[in-house]
UniProtKB/TrEMBL annotation:
SUPFAM superfamilies reported in the protein's UniProt record: DNA/RNA polymerases, Lesion bypass DNA polymerase (Y-family), little finger domain
Entry EC number(s): 2.7.7.7
InterPro entries: DNA/RNA_pol_sf, DNA_pol_Y-fam_lit_finger_sf, DNA_pol_Y-fam_little_finger, DNA_polymerase-Y, DNApol_IV, PolY_HhH_motif, Rev_trsase/Diguanyl_cyclase, UmuC
Cofactors demanded by this protein: Mg(2+)
Catalysis performed (reactions): DNA(n) + a 2'-deoxyribonucleoside 5'-triphosphate = DNA(n+1) + diphosphate
Major place of residence: cytoplasm
Name of the featured protein: DNA polymerase IV
Protein backbone atom coordinates (compact mmCIF):
# COMPACT_ATOMS: atom_id res chain seq x y z
CA UNK A 1 0.00 0.00 0.00
CA UNK A 2 1.10 3.59 -0.65
CA UNK A 3 1.89 5.57 2.55
CA UNK A 4 -0.71 3.35 4.19
CA UNK A 5 -1.46 4.95 7.58
CA UNK A 6 -1.24 8.49 6.22
CA UNK A 7 -3.34 7.63 3.17
CA UNK A 8 -6.10 6.20 5.37
CA UNK A 9 -6.13 9.41 7.39
CA UNK A 10 -6.32 11.53 4.23
CA UNK A 11 -9.10 9.33 2.88
CA UNK A 12 -11.18 9.71 6.04
CA UNK A 13 -10.52 13.42 6.54
CA UNK A 14 -10.88 15.43 3.31
CA UNK A 15 -9.22 18.44 4.97
CA UNK A 16 -5.93 16.49 5.11
CA UNK A 17 -5.85 15.66 1.42
CA UNK A 18 -2.98 17.22 -0.47
CA UNK A 19 -1.32 18.32 2.76
CA UNK A 20 1.82 17.03 4.53
CA UNK A 21 0.63 14.56 7.16
CA UNK A 22 2.54 12.60 9.78
CA UNK A 23 0.94 9.77 11.73
CA UNK A 24 2.54 9.31 15.12
CA UNK A 25 3.95 11.30 18.00
CA UNK A 26 3.13 14.83 18.97
CA UNK A 27 4.93 17.86 17.60
CA UNK A 28 7.14 18.18 20.70
CA UNK A 29 7.97 14.54 21.31
CA UNK A 30 7.61 11.15 19.73
CA UNK A 31 8.44 9.50 16.45
CA UNK A 32 6.79 9.54 13.04
CA UNK A 33 5.07 6.22 12.31
CA UNK A 34 4.12 7.11 8.73
CA UNK A 35 4.30 10.12 6.41
CA UNK A 36 2.19 11.16 3.44
CA UNK A 37 3.86 11.69 0.09
CA UNK A 38 3.39 15.43 0.51
CA UNK A 39 5.44 15.22 3.73
CA UNK A 40 8.06 12.98 2.15
CA UNK A 41 8.89 15.74 -0.32
CA UNK A 42 10.35 17.62 2.66
CA UNK A 43 12.38 14.63 3.83
CA UNK A 44 9.90 13.45 6.47
CA UNK A 45 10.13 9.68 6.87
CA UNK A 46 8.91 7.07 9.30
CA UNK A 47 11.02 6.52 12.43
CA UNK A 48 12.42 10.07 12.58
CA UNK A 49 11.73 12.14 15.73
CA UNK A 50 8.68 14.34 15.49
CA UNK A 51 10.68 17.45 16.32
CA UNK A 52 13.01 16.73 13.40
CA UNK A 53 10.04 16.16 11.10
CA UNK A 54 8.52 19.51 12.12
CA UNK A 55 11.82 21.25 11.49
CA UNK A 56 11.99 19.75 8.00
CA UNK A 57 8.37 20.63 7.26
CA UNK A 58 6.99 23.52 9.34
CA UNK A 59 3.46 22.98 7.97
CA UNK A 60 3.42 19.30 8.92
CA UNK A 61 0.12 18.08 10.40
CA UNK A 62 0.38 15.41 13.11
CA UNK A 63 -2.41 12.83 13.40
CA UNK A 64 -2.81 10.22 16.12
CA UNK A 65 -2.71 6.65 14.77
CA UNK A 66 -5.93 4.61 14.59
CA UNK A 67 -4.71 1.05 14.40
CA UNK A 68 -8.19 -0.44 14.62
CA UNK A 69 -9.04 1.32 11.34
CA UNK A 70 -5.78 0.25 9.70
CA UNK A 71 -6.40 -3.36 10.71
CA UNK A 72 -9.91 -3.24 9.26
CA UNK A 73 -8.57 -1.99 5.92
CA UNK A 74 -5.88 -4.67 6.02
CA UNK A 75 -8.56 -7.33 6.40
CA UNK A 76 -10.33 -5.94 3.33
CA UNK A 77 -7.10 -6.27 1.36
CA UNK A 78 -6.50 -9.83 2.58
CA UNK A 79 -9.99 -10.79 1.48
CA UNK A 80 -9.21 -9.49 -2.01
CA UNK A 81 -5.93 -11.43 -2.10
CA UNK A 82 -7.77 -14.59 -1.09
CA UNK A 83 -10.00 -14.33 -4.17
CA UNK A 84 -6.94 -15.08 -6.28
CA UNK A 85 -4.69 -17.38 -4.25
CA UNK A 86 -4.46 -19.18 -0.94
CA UNK A 87 -0.68 -18.79 -0.88
CA UNK A 88 -0.38 -15.44 0.90
CA UNK A 89 2.58 -14.52 3.09
CA UNK A 90 1.82 -11.32 5.04
CA UNK A 91 4.75 -9.06 5.87
CA UNK A 92 2.79 -6.37 7.70
CA UNK A 93 -0.67 -4.80 7.73
CA UNK A 94 -0.15 -3.28 4.29
CA UNK A 95 2.16 -5.69 2.46
CA UNK A 96 2.23 -9.34 1.44
CA UNK A 97 3.76 -11.79 -1.00
CA UNK A 98 1.34 -13.72 -3.23
CA UNK A 99 2.21 -16.82 -5.23
CA UNK A 100 -0.14 -16.78 -8.22
CA UNK A 101 1.54 -19.51 -10.27
CA UNK A 102 -1.59 -21.62 -9.90
CA UNK A 103 -4.27 -19.09 -9.00
CA UNK A 104 -7.93 -19.57 -8.18
CA UNK A 105 -9.18 -17.73 -11.26
CA UNK A 106 -6.99 -19.55 -13.77
CA UNK A 107 -5.46 -16.30 -15.07
CA UNK A 108 -2.22 -17.02 -16.92
CA UNK A 109 -0.75 -13.52 -16.52
CA UNK A 110 0.56 -12.49 -13.09
CA UNK A 111 0.59 -8.91 -14.33
CA UNK A 112 -3.14 -9.10 -15.08
CA UNK A 113 -3.77 -10.46 -11.59
CA UNK A 114 -1.79 -7.60 -10.07
CA UNK A 115 -3.80 -5.06 -12.06
CA UNK A 116 -7.09 -6.64 -11.00
CA UNK A 117 -6.06 -6.67 -7.34
CA UNK A 118 -4.98 -3.03 -7.46
CA UNK A 119 -8.28 -2.06 -9.10
CA UNK A 120 -10.30 -3.95 -6.47
CA UNK A 121 -8.34 -2.35 -3.63
CA UNK A 122 -9.00 1.10 -5.08
CA UNK A 123 -12.71 0.36 -5.58
CA UNK A 124 -13.31 -1.16 -2.15
CA UNK A 125 -11.00 0.91 0.07
CA UNK A 126 -10.57 4.16 -1.94
CA UNK A 127 -6.80 3.71 -1.47
CA UNK A 128 -3.97 3.03 -3.89
CA UNK A 129 -1.58 0.11 -3.93
CA UNK A 130 1.63 -0.58 -5.84
CA UNK A 131 2.59 -4.02 -7.11
CA UNK A 132 5.78 -5.77 -8.10
CA UNK A 133 5.59 -8.78 -10.39
CA UNK A 134 8.52 -11.12 -10.81
CA UNK A 135 9.74 -14.70 -10.64
CA UNK A 136 11.04 -14.59 -7.07
CA UNK A 137 10.39 -12.78 -3.79
CA UNK A 138 13.48 -10.58 -3.81
CA UNK A 139 12.79 -9.14 -7.25
CA UNK A 140 9.04 -8.78 -6.61
CA UNK A 141 9.86 -6.71 -3.53
CA UNK A 142 12.25 -4.49 -5.52
CA UNK A 143 9.67 -4.10 -8.26
CA UNK A 144 6.91 -3.12 -5.81
CA UNK A 145 8.94 -0.08 -4.73
CA UNK A 146 10.03 0.92 -8.22
CA UNK A 147 6.91 2.76 -9.41
CA UNK A 148 5.38 4.03 -6.16
CA UNK A 149 2.89 5.49 -5.62
CA UNK A 150 0.02 3.79 -7.45
CA UNK A 151 2.26 1.90 -9.84
CA UNK A 152 3.12 -1.52 -11.12
CA UNK A 153 6.46 -2.82 -12.35
CA UNK A 154 7.37 -6.18 -13.88
CA UNK A 155 10.82 -7.78 -13.75
CA UNK A 156 11.05 -10.68 -16.20
CA UNK A 157 13.63 -13.49 -15.97
CA UNK A 158 15.47 -11.94 -18.91
CA UNK A 159 15.87 -8.53 -17.27
CA UNK A 160 16.27 -9.65 -13.64
CA UNK A 161 20.08 -9.95 -13.29
CA UNK A 162 20.76 -6.72 -15.17
CA UNK A 163 18.15 -4.86 -13.11
CA UNK A 164 19.84 -5.93 -9.88
CA UNK A 165 23.27 -4.85 -11.11
CA UNK A 166 22.22 -1.22 -11.55
CA UNK A 167 20.59 -0.73 -8.14
CA UNK A 168 22.32 0.67 -5.05
CA UNK A 169 22.67 -2.02 -2.38
CA UNK A 170 20.88 0.25 0.11
CA UNK A 171 17.68 -0.41 -1.86
CA UNK A 172 17.98 -4.19 -1.50
CA UNK A 173 15.40 -5.79 0.78
CA UNK A 174 17.43 -7.43 3.54
CA UNK A 175 20.24 -4.86 3.47
CA UNK A 176 19.68 -2.43 6.32
CA UNK A 177 21.43 0.92 6.90
CA UNK A 178 24.29 -0.58 8.92
CA UNK A 179 24.95 -3.35 6.37
CA UNK A 180 24.74 -0.89 3.48
CA UNK A 181 27.29 1.34 5.23
CA UNK A 182 29.63 -1.62 5.73
CA UNK A 183 29.24 -2.62 2.09
CA UNK A 184 30.07 0.91 1.00
CA UNK A 185 33.21 0.85 3.15
CA UNK A 186 34.18 -2.34 1.31
CA UNK A 187 33.63 -0.65 -2.05
CA UNK A 188 30.28 -2.33 -2.66
CA UNK A 189 27.82 0.34 -3.78
CA UNK A 190 25.70 -1.45 -6.40
CA UNK A 191 24.46 -4.91 -7.25
CA UNK A 192 27.23 -5.20 -9.80
CA UNK A 193 29.83 -4.44 -7.14
CA UNK A 194 28.30 -7.11 -4.92
CA UNK A 195 28.31 -9.61 -7.78
CA UNK A 196 32.09 -9.29 -8.28
CA UNK A 197 32.84 -10.78 -4.86
CA UNK A 198 33.08 -14.56 -4.36
CA UNK A 199 30.87 -16.42 -1.95
CA UNK A 200 33.72 -17.09 0.50
CA UNK A 201 34.49 -13.37 0.78
CA UNK A 202 30.84 -12.46 1.47
CA UNK A 203 30.58 -15.22 4.07
CA UNK A 204 33.71 -13.91 5.74
CA UNK A 205 32.38 -10.35 5.83
CA UNK A 206 28.68 -10.96 6.50
CA UNK A 207 28.49 -14.40 8.09
CA UNK A 208 25.31 -16.41 7.51
CA UNK A 209 23.87 -13.59 5.36
CA UNK A 210 26.74 -13.93 2.89
CA UNK A 211 25.10 -16.63 0.71
CA UNK A 212 21.88 -14.60 0.51
CA UNK A 213 23.78 -11.54 -0.75
CA UNK A 214 25.76 -13.69 -3.19
CA UNK A 215 22.65 -15.10 -4.86
CA UNK A 216 20.46 -11.98 -4.89
CA UNK A 217 23.29 -10.13 -6.64
CA UNK A 218 22.59 -12.59 -9.46
CA UNK A 219 18.82 -12.17 -9.28
CA UNK A 220 18.39 -15.60 -7.65
CA UNK A 221 16.13 -16.17 -4.64
CA UNK A 222 14.78 -19.66 -4.02
CA UNK A 223 12.66 -18.81 -0.97
CA UNK A 224 9.05 -19.94 -1.47
CA UNK A 225 6.02 -17.86 -0.62
CA UNK A 226 4.88 -19.56 2.57
CA UNK A 227 1.42 -19.03 3.92
CA UNK A 228 2.12 -21.40 6.80
CA UNK A 229 5.64 -20.42 7.76
CA UNK A 230 6.47 -21.11 11.39
CA UNK A 231 8.08 -18.21 13.20
CA UNK A 232 10.58 -18.74 15.99
CA UNK A 233 10.26 -15.10 16.99
CA UNK A 234 8.43 -11.92 16.09
CA UNK A 235 10.22 -8.60 16.21
CA UNK A 236 10.43 -5.03 15.01
CA UNK A 237 12.94 -2.23 15.35
CA UNK A 238 13.53 1.36 14.33
CA UNK A 239 16.75 3.25 13.66
CA UNK A 240 16.38 6.94 14.40
CA UNK A 241 17.88 9.75 12.35
CA UNK A 242 18.53 11.67 15.58
CA UNK A 243 19.64 9.97 18.80
CA UNK A 244 17.22 9.75 21.73
CA UNK A 245 18.39 11.03 25.12
CA UNK A 246 15.31 11.31 27.33
CA UNK A 247 13.07 8.64 28.77
CA UNK A 248 10.02 10.45 27.38
CA UNK A 249 11.37 10.38 23.82
CA UNK A 250 12.38 6.72 24.15
CA UNK A 251 8.93 5.78 25.49
CA UNK A 252 7.25 7.49 22.55
CA UNK A 253 9.61 5.80 20.09
CA UNK A 254 8.87 2.40 21.61
CA UNK A 255 5.08 2.65 21.07
CA UNK A 256 4.94 1.98 17.29
CA UNK A 257 7.50 -0.81 17.68
CA UNK A 258 5.40 -2.58 20.31
CA UNK A 259 2.31 -2.03 18.16
CA UNK A 260 3.98 -3.63 15.14
CA UNK A 261 5.04 -6.69 17.15
CA UNK A 262 1.55 -7.08 18.57
CA UNK A 263 0.00 -6.79 15.09
CA UNK A 264 2.21 -9.66 13.95
CA UNK A 265 1.01 -11.73 16.89
CA UNK A 266 -2.61 -10.91 16.18
CA UNK A 267 -2.40 -11.70 12.47
CA UNK A 268 -0.50 -14.95 13.03
CA UNK A 269 -2.56 -16.09 16.02
CA UNK A 270 0.53 -16.55 18.18
CA UNK A 271 1.64 -15.37 21.60
CA UNK A 272 5.12 -15.32 23.10
CA UNK A 273 6.56 -15.68 26.58
CA UNK A 274 10.05 -14.21 26.19
CA UNK A 275 10.34 -10.48 25.57
CA UNK A 276 13.66 -9.01 24.41
CA UNK A 277 14.46 -5.32 24.25
CA UNK A 278 17.27 -4.39 21.85
CA UNK A 279 19.14 -1.10 22.23
CA UNK A 280 21.88 0.28 20.02
CA UNK A 281 23.65 3.38 21.28
CA UNK A 282 25.12 6.29 19.34
CA UNK A 283 28.57 4.64 19.40
CA UNK A 284 27.00 1.43 17.93
CA UNK A 285 27.33 -0.51 21.17
CA UNK A 286 24.41 -2.92 21.30
CA UNK A 287 22.77 -4.49 24.34
CA UNK A 288 19.69 -6.62 24.96
CA UNK A 289 17.51 -7.07 28.00
CA UNK A 290 15.08 -10.00 28.26
CA UNK A 291 12.22 -11.10 30.49
CA UNK A 292 10.31 -14.38 30.38
CA UNK A 293 6.76 -14.78 31.63
CA UNK A 294 5.26 -17.98 32.97
CA UNK A 295 2.42 -17.59 30.45
CA UNK A 296 2.32 -15.96 27.01
CA UNK A 297 1.61 -12.23 26.90
CA UNK A 298 -2.17 -12.02 26.69
CA UNK A 299 -2.68 -8.37 25.72
CA UNK A 300 -0.88 -5.54 24.01
CA UNK A 301 -0.91 -3.64 27.30
CA UNK A 302 1.03 -6.45 28.98
CA UNK A 303 3.62 -6.35 26.24
CA UNK A 304 3.89 -2.57 26.39
CA UNK A 305 4.15 -2.48 30.18
CA UNK A 306 6.97 -5.02 30.32
CA UNK A 307 8.80 -3.39 27.40
CA UNK A 308 8.70 -0.04 29.19
CA UNK A 309 9.96 -1.61 32.42
CA UNK A 310 12.98 -3.02 30.58
CA UNK A 311 13.55 0.35 28.93
CA UNK A 312 13.26 2.40 32.11
CA UNK A 313 16.01 0.34 33.76
CA UNK A 314 18.50 1.80 31.27
CA UNK A 315 18.00 5.38 32.40
CA UNK A 316 19.60 7.80 33.00
CA UNK A 317 21.69 7.47 29.84
CA UNK A 318 25.37 8.17 29.33
CA UNK A 319 24.96 8.24 25.53
CA UNK A 320 22.14 8.59 23.05
CA UNK A 321 20.03 5.75 21.64
CA UNK A 322 20.10 5.31 17.85
CA UNK A 323 18.00 2.12 17.62
CA UNK A 324 15.28 0.40 19.62
CA UNK A 325 13.86 -3.04 18.96
CA UNK A 326 11.36 -5.40 20.58
CA UNK A 327 11.00 -9.12 19.90
CA UNK A 328 8.93 -11.99 21.27
CA UNK A 329 10.12 -15.59 21.28
CA UNK A 330 9.00 -18.87 22.86
CA UNK A 331 5.97 -18.55 20.62
CA UNK A 332 2.81 -20.56 21.19
CA UNK A 333 -0.43 -20.72 19.25
CA UNK A 334 -3.03 -18.19 20.35
CA UNK A 335 -4.52 -19.35 23.65
CA UNK A 336 -5.71 -16.00 24.96
CA UNK A 337 -9.10 -17.42 25.87
CA UNK A 338 -7.44 -19.97 28.13
CA UNK A 339 -4.65 -17.88 29.68
CA UNK A 340 -5.28 -15.45 32.55
CA UNK A 341 -4.28 -11.88 31.88
CA UNK A 342 -0.97 -10.92 33.41
CA UNK A 343 -2.17 -7.50 34.56
CA UNK A 344 -4.82 -4.88 34.12
CA UNK A 345 -4.53 -2.67 31.06
CA UNK A 346 -2.59 0.53 31.66
Amino acid sequence: MDAFFASVEQRDNPWLRGKPVAVGGSRERGVVAAASYEAREFGVRSAIPSVTAKRKCPDLIFVKPRFDVYRAVSQQMRAIFAEYTAIIEPLSLDEAYLDVTENLKGIVSATEIAEQIRAKIRAETKLTASAGVSYNKFLAKLASDHRKPDGIFVITPKMGPAFVETLPVRKFHGVGPATAAKMNRLGIATGLDLKTHPLAYLQEQFGKSGPYYYWIARGIDERPVRADRIRKSVGAENTFSADLFTLEAARDALQPIVEKVWRHCESAGTRGRTLTLKVKYADFQQITRSWTSAAPFATRSDLERQSLELLECLFPLEKGIRLLGVSLSSLDEDQTNEQPQLSLAL
